[in-house]
Amino acid sequence: MMVDVTLWAGLRPLADNQKVVRVEARTIRELLRELEDRYPGLAEPIKGQVAVAVNGVIYRNDWSQELPEDAEVLLMRRLAGG
Amino acid sequence: MSFDATYQNKSFNSVGTRPLRPDGVDKVTGRARYGADFNMPGQLVARVLRSPHAHARIKNIDTSRAEAVKGVKAIVTAADLPDLTDGDAGLFAILDNCMAREKAMYDGHAVAAVAAIDQKAAKAALNLIDVDYEVLPHVVDVDAATLPDAPVLNEKIFTQGVEPTPTMPSNVANRAEFGHGDVDAGFEQADLIVERSYKTEQTHQGYIEPHACVANCNPDGTAELWVCTQGHFVYRQNCADLLGLEASKLRVTSSEIGGGFGGKTHVWAEPVALALSRKANRPVKLVMSREEVFRASGPTSATSIDVKIGAKKDGTITAAEATLRYTSGPYAGMWAELGAMTSFACYDLESVKTVGLEVVVNRPKVAAYRAPSAPMAAFAVESAIDELAHKIGMDAVDFRIKNAASEGTKSSYGPVYGPIGIGPTLEAAKTHPHMSAPLGENQGRGMACGFWFNFGGQTCTDLNISADGTVTIAVGTVDVGGSRASLSLIAAEELGISYDDIKAVIADTSTLGYNDMTDGSRGTFSTSMATISAARNAIEVMRQRAALMWDIPLEDVYWEEGHAHAAGTKHGNRAPLSVKDIAAEAGNTGGPIAGHSELVADGAGVSFATHICDIEVDPETGSSRVVRYTVIQDAGKAVHPSYVEGQYQGGAAQGIGWALNEEYIYGEDGRLQNPGFLDYRIPVCSDLPMIDTQILEIPNPNHPYGVRGVGETSIVPPLAAIANAVSNAVGVRMAHIPLSPPRILAALNEANG
Amino acid sequence: MRYERPQTIEDATALLANADAKSFLLAGGTDLLVRMQNDDFEADLIVDIKSIAGMGNITETGGGFVIGAGVPCAALSENPALFVAWPGVVEAANLIGSTQIQGRCTMVGNLCNASPAADSVPALVAANARVRVAGPSGQREIAVLDVPTGPGKTSLKKGEIIEAILLPKRDGRAGDAYQRFIPRTEMDIAVVGVGVNLSLDDAGMVQSARVALGAVGPKVILSDKAAEAIIGTKLEESVLDALAAVCSDTSSPIDDKRGTVAFRKQVAGVLARRAAQTAYTRAGEK
Amino acid sequence: MSSIAVSTTINDDDVEFLCQPDETLLDVLRNRLGLMGAKEGCGTGDCGACSTIMDGRVVCSCLVLGAEAQGKTIETIEGLANGAELHPLQRKFIEHAALQCGICTPGFLMAAKALLEANPDPTETEIRFWLAGNLCRCTGYDKIVRAVQDAAAEMRGETA
């Protein structure tokens, strides 16, 4: 399944300045792997700074989360809370 | 076992009731033990030496005179905390903040610490540590720090997020941009535009309990830490990483916590206490003074924010733009970025652009404070929204309703919203009696909205059923304000037993799996999910035990209302088995009964609130008083409504203090002038009215009971709500928080010519 | 460091007279113990005067009231006669700190701490209060106005102790009032404080007046000009305007963490007007 | 510095202790007598977390020297309940959810006790000003004030 992943501004320089990257992935894990393979510079941020928003729901840690058909996927920075 | 977190829309027996909290008696009798209420045999007293300079190179530290003081057992400096952070900038910032390495970066920055047999010896030694400082130029103001001639704090900081990468170091650590659409085109379409700059001053979480810990390192490599923290597992990891300890050999016990609000989410002095203990080979107790708390822990960002919003005459916003500068202390954080993400989150915007600029200054390292960064952004945006509504001639609530985000809206920070509560809170505000109550002389009414993300995260819970059928739940999220009561209600609901048969305890790091902190409004959300999961697992075990007791197949046993039932009629009219019945036979049916859960609680629903307040201003002195205050917020599902109300009221009170009187005041020398509760003015009892609350329940689709986090959002709207009320009362737009009497009086004088 | 609790004023003054420079008197302790928290604080001797006979008493005499140096401010409002006679002094003293502080703090301590922002001092100065000073060479009496000489400094000599505050007898149509400004409703140090004390003639005209300003100079300011502005008037609007203007002009405050020069000057006028009106009303009710 | 011997009464018990001349009553209670219910939030009399009652007046025990306790009668949070029976204020604080983190609670309870002894029927304003020296950062004071009002009503015999 093909998914369009939107990168936050800070990540774009690490991905050939692309805002949206189209990858083949069924789960968050596959998505992150694919991004890392294609853009090795993303490996470092993906390790600890990234959360994935799927259809508006933010997943901080969960690799197993499946990506629904036509999912809207964004990479976001992990947030701090009080 | 995989856990289905989908919302079930069930009716509740326990959830939504208001039982007495299980730790209440301990806390009203003085028996509850907080950070400073614990001692170990042979324990030493620790004191920290702090920089009197806002910015200074540490040329040399000579501890020889201090070491000679009788009763001094250990002195540590940065040399005793070698850099093991391996390029992790966030961890390095925590390390450098715990103990200054090359430079003292702010007034109050730790430079050395002493452990001695008593306060007297520790104090004497502190006065005899000779630090050779080279005082450097400093900058504390957010705007001044971005000027070309500002002293550069860190030669290694080149603004990230701009192309091409700058060649000169700067105090702007990074730039983050969010938004969509074409704002320039949007402003072209606008009939009216409001554009204004705002400022907010730095505040502190102001928890009443200073940081405190007892550290004990043994020669065999094991260690213990008793500490007040929002997350003992995180503290364990921080300390293990910074001191080179094995995480599993460091047992961290969280004390009762006397307030945190984000300020106890990472370590401050705990690694120092452990380092002292390691060096002295004795337990060490370290308790910060109030002055140390203000000078060297916690604060939030000071900000400078420019907002521009355009709308058509019919009230449709065509474009919105903001540039947000946030101080982060001496180390880069993501505070401006959070401000940029949250600023327009309440609205459905065709074109929006926000830019966050993270500014390093010679102030303490910024820590999270309840919905970090959102209140200042909301102050600026909600002030501008109000001003624009006035300009258009529309009611402030109607204008917001017209532009409010709803399910399917693409948020200003990126994702598309699911079901959300901004519209309903606004509709509730519109019809709330407060909105139509008459105002007295010199009074003004203001309202504002607020947003916060809410977190989930890693969670682990144990649920153990005793032989008498009572239940212990061991959780790993620190109870900051009543979560033991909420979680007991959840367990009672899921198991179908009485609240009184459940005891919730906070387990230490050696007896339970890892848990993220109690932050991001995640405590009840995440741990309730894990508790439901653990209860379901325990029910599964009890079904098996019941099948065994009845000698019938497992599939013929179902669970309902706290009992195992035999399905159908083929097993005769067997009386259902209660938890107590099954527990009593546990020894014969396979041993202790327990349910465990390890999960990542994702899908925390975003949270919205709308606040209304009335302010009375004394036109002759600029003094202002909150005369009425109403909080309306979506809780998803209020598990224990009293403590949900408490979160709403507490957040509002903190926001009111921020709006009116709280601020860090620095002298020309860069030293903090008000490190105490006398001149850092948090609201006192006589400053506030009763705070009315209205809980809305728009279920979170990603939680079995529909729960959303409730802890933080309530601090987001007050700054703007109060600024709008004061502006309406005095007829002058107030754009600098806090709205202290001198600022209000100056504005009144200007308006009156 | 020594802690001493002498039983007589002679023993107390002797202790202080013979002590090293770093000796301190302890009455309510609400300022001293705060200073003791500081790492730089050093003391050789602390003399607790509360066990000395009479220190805890409020005595009504033919000449007025004698308030012992150990009387906590909370006790002032519990004395009906004192409250009726000097409501402005009592309300000023009762504004110092919280309930907890009220249970300990004393007016003499407030005076001797010599903070320019002390709440009770402008009210005492307006009331023309005096203090009885005991020392190695016997007793003397001086005006409250002459005790503080600057921030943290007093005119007391080595070995001297203020035993009591002496409030004059009150008769006829007279009233006093104290107004202060703080950012919150409680728990703050005065940003500006104004004490007004006045008496009326039979026609309701101000016969005599004293106006004292706090927190707008290095020490309390007794403004003769302000008094002159209201003497011989019935506090008509124009008179109050003039009073406010004089008080603003007389103020010479500094910018600090608690307020700005402009704010303090302006608010001094506002509070003077309000305090004068209250004092006038109180006087008129007698 | 030599220690001072002090004889005093704490929660109806005769207590003797030694303390340093510069030691506060709060430190004596916590570190020498094991009475840790009084908390140190500031050490400067600004937060009220260390409130105790001395000779009938509520004071900040951080602003009292241990030596000053000589001959005094002192009440602390540990003595507020009558054995297993909670004081009405204690019960009402739990019932009204008037505490979140609970660190300020002992101080509030002692201050409120002194209030209701001085004024059994206080108005909301009187409660708020009496308690202004007790800082709470969690609750916004709303539920605290209600708990005190309710306890006062019960103690006056007006319970519904």
UniProtKB/TrEMBL annotation, chain B:
<protein>
    <submittedName>
        <fullName>Molybdopterin-dependent oxidoreductase</fullName>
    </submittedName>
</protein>
<dbReference type="InterPro" id="IPR046867">
    <property type="entry name" value="AldOxase/xan_DH_MoCoBD2"/>
</dbReference>
<dbReference type="InterPro" id="IPR037165">
    <property type="entry name" value="AldOxase/xan_DH_Mopterin-bd_sf"/>
</dbReference>
<dbReference type="InterPro" id="IPR000674">
    <property type="entry name" value="Ald_Oxase/Xan_DH_a/b"/>
</dbReference>
<dbReference type="InterPro" id="IPR008274">
    <property type="entry name" value="AldOxase/xan_DH_MoCoBD1"/>
</dbReference>
<feature type="domain" description="Aldehyde oxidase/xanthine dehydrogenase a/b hammerhead">
    <location>
        <begin position="29"/>
        <end position="137"/>
    </location>
</feature>
<dbReference type="GO" id="GO:0016491">
    <property type="term" value="F:oxidoreductase activity"/>
</dbReference>
<dbReference type="Pfam" id="PF01315">
    <property type="entry name" value="Ald_Xan_dh_C"/>
</dbReference>
<dbReference type="GO" id="GO:0005506">
    <property type="term" value="F:iron ion binding"/>
</dbReference>
<keyword id="KW-0500">Molybdenum</keyword>
<dbReference type="Pfam" id="PF02738">
    <property type="entry name" value="MoCoBD_1"/>
</dbReference>
<dbReference type="Pfam" id="PF20256">
    <property type="entry name" value="MoCoBD_2"/>
</dbReference>
<dbReference type="InterPro" id="IPR016208">
    <property type="entry name" value="Ald_Oxase/xanthine_DH-like"/>
</dbReference>
<dbReference type="InterPro" id="IPR036856">
    <property type="entry name" value="Ald_Oxase/Xan_DH_a/b_sf"/>
</dbReference>
<keyword id="KW-0560">Oxidoreductase</keyword>
UniProtKB/TrEMBL annotation, chain C:
<feature type="domain" description="FAD-binding PCMH-type">
    <location>
        <begin position="1"/>
        <end position="172"/>
    </location>
</feature>
<dbReference type="InterPro" id="IPR016166">
    <property type="entry name" value="FAD-bd_PCMH"/>
</dbReference>
<dbReference type="InterPro" id="IPR002346">
    <property type="entry name" value="Mopterin_DH_FAD-bd"/>
</dbReference>
<keyword id="KW-0285">Flavoprotein</keyword>
<dbReference type="Pfam" id="PF00941">
    <property type="entry name" value="FAD_binding_5"/>
</dbReference>
<protein>
    <submittedName>
        <fullName>Xanthine dehydrogenase family protein subunit M</fullName>
    </submittedName>
</protein>
<dbReference type="InterPro" id="IPR051312">
    <property type="entry name" value="Diverse_Substr_Oxidored"/>
</dbReference>
<keyword id="KW-0560">Oxidoreductase</keyword>
<dbReference type="InterPro" id="IPR016167">
    <property type="entry name" value="FAD-bd_PCMH_sub1"/>
</dbReference>
<dbReference type="GO" id="GO:0016491">
    <property type="term" value="F:oxidoreductase activity"/>
</dbReference>
<dbReference type="InterPro" id="IPR036318">
    <property type="entry name" value="FAD-bd_PCMH-like_sf"/>
</dbReference>
<dbReference type="InterPro" id="IPR005107">
    <property type="entry name" value="CO_DH_flav_C"/>
</dbReference>
<dbReference type="GO" id="GO:0071949">
    <property type="term" value="F:FAD binding"/>
</dbReference>
<dbReference type="InterPro" id="IPR036683">
    <property type="entry name" value="CO_DH_flav_C_dom_sf"/>
</dbReference>
<dbReference type="InterPro" id="IPR016169">
    <property type="entry name" value="FAD-bd_PCMH_sub2"/>
</dbReference>
UniProtKB/TrEMBL annotation, chain D:
<dbReference type="InterPro" id="IPR036884">
    <property type="entry name" value="2Fe-2S-bd_dom_sf"/>
</dbReference>
<dbReference type="GO" id="GO:0046872">
    <property type="term" value="F:metal ion binding"/>
</dbReference>
<keyword id="KW-0411">Iron-sulfur</keyword>
<protein>
    <submittedName>
        <fullName>2Fe-2S iron-sulfur cluster binding domain-containing protein</fullName>
    </submittedName>
</protein>
<dbReference type="InterPro" id="IPR051452">
    <property type="entry name" value="Diverse_Oxidoreductases"/>
</dbReference>
<dbReference type="Pfam" id="PF01799">
    <property type="entry name" value="Fer2_2"/>
</dbReference>
<dbReference type="Pfam" id="PF00111">
    <property type="entry name" value="Fer2"/>
</dbReference>
<dbReference type="InterPro" id="IPR001041">
    <property type="entry name" value="2Fe-2S_ferredoxin-type"/>
</dbReference>
<dbReference type="InterPro" id="IPR002888">
    <property type="entry name" value="2Fe-2S-bd"/>
</dbReference>
<feature type="domain" description="2Fe-2S ferredoxin-type">
    <location>
        <begin position="4"/>
        <end position="80"/>
    </location>
</feature>
<dbReference type="GO" id="GO:0051537">
    <property type="term" value="F:2 iron, 2 sulfur cluster binding"/>
</dbReference>
<dbReference type="InterPro" id="IPR036010">
    <property type="entry name" value="2Fe-2S_ferredoxin-like_sf"/>
</dbReference>
<keyword id="KW-0560">Oxidoreductase</keyword>
<dbReference type="InterPro" id="IPR012675">
    <property type="entry name" value="Beta-grasp_dom_sf"/>
</dbReference>
<dbReference type="InterPro" id="IPR006058">
    <property type="entry name" value="2Fe2S_fd_BS"/>
</dbReference>
